[in-house]
């Protein structure tokens, strides 16, 4: 398994600010987006690499863990069960979400991150992956807690950070959760950082958010596609012409209307 240099993927150094990380991600995401590189498998692969890099560097906790990993990543990968000298034993390696429906790119879905990402940011803990002599007492398994989070189409497209509140251990707990770009309707997001207080037995309860996309006033989403109804003059429908409109990312697009266009025709 090859080490993933996420800074290099986004054209950054380790000194890059959070704003620079976001700016680099948006720059490359626009450049390699499947919508502007249709049929280009290399651009598609690059787009997924960019998304994976941003999942790590765009999240302060994940970025810190990635930076701490550094040159020790091979030791982490090759550590054997029962090893007492594992450099990350007891560390909590989690990302803000996990689930089969989590997309790696804008409205594409269905693909998974690289083996490197899954090995180090899959949501497992080092203590869970490698048996140690210092195990916490756990409470009996509790049913998972799940609630719905409403998202606008723009939030689903770009990704967003939201503060959510759960009821855990008899009290409400709040945490910020980063919603990844391109999340699908009904996607399940695993939330970390809840359900356990200091000096208390570890809880087995899991917390999830289920995404609900609110209806948009202009666009209709069907799978990975967005649909928009546009009114055109009768003369344009008969003779042909062009029509301009704004995409969900506020970018202006122009569509060529062929002569003889019929009502309800889809382009």
From TrEMBL:
Matching Pfam families: DnaJ, DnaJ_C
Keywords: Chaperone
Domain J, residue spans: 5-70
TM helices/strands, residue ranges: none
Protein name stated in the entry: J domain-containing protein
Recorded GO MF terms: protein-folding chaperone binding; unfolded protein binding
GO cellular component entries: cytosol
An individual GO BP term: protein folding
UniProt entry tagged with the keyword Cell wall biogenesis/degradation: no
